[in-house]
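Course assignment 3, question 2. Fill in each field.
Student: A.L.
Task: Predict the tertiary structure for the chain below.
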Amino acid sequence: MIDIINIVSFFILYPAILFVLTFIITTYFLHNRKKSFGIAADVTTFLLFFSVSHVFFIIFSMKIGFLLIVFALILASIITYLDWRTKNEIEIQPLLRKIWRLLFLLLCLFYAFIWLFGVIRYVFNYIS
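Answer field:
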């Protein structure tokens, strides 16, 4: 049981490794890089919610998990509204995929910025 917790904790701290592993495994089985990339992004997005929240808490001592969920819901509402205005007919599965992939991109960028800020902050603390 402790091994499973350690593995999940590792992937929460390093979601890029989960992305790469998922991409390699799905590419091996599906032989389709585009579909494999999408599956890896979908799997990683779920963990990115926890990763961003945890890394933000480590660096700034503030919990933002609830704010991330609110942000995701507002973003989903906006995308749904824009999709409805342009198409007049909402197709659920493509809409959810679009929202989930946009969340992947935004959470990856946010994670990278937080991580980079943490490294720079650590270096400055080490120097001074």
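Instructor remarks: The chain has five helices and no strands. The chain has one domain: 2-127.
Grade: pending
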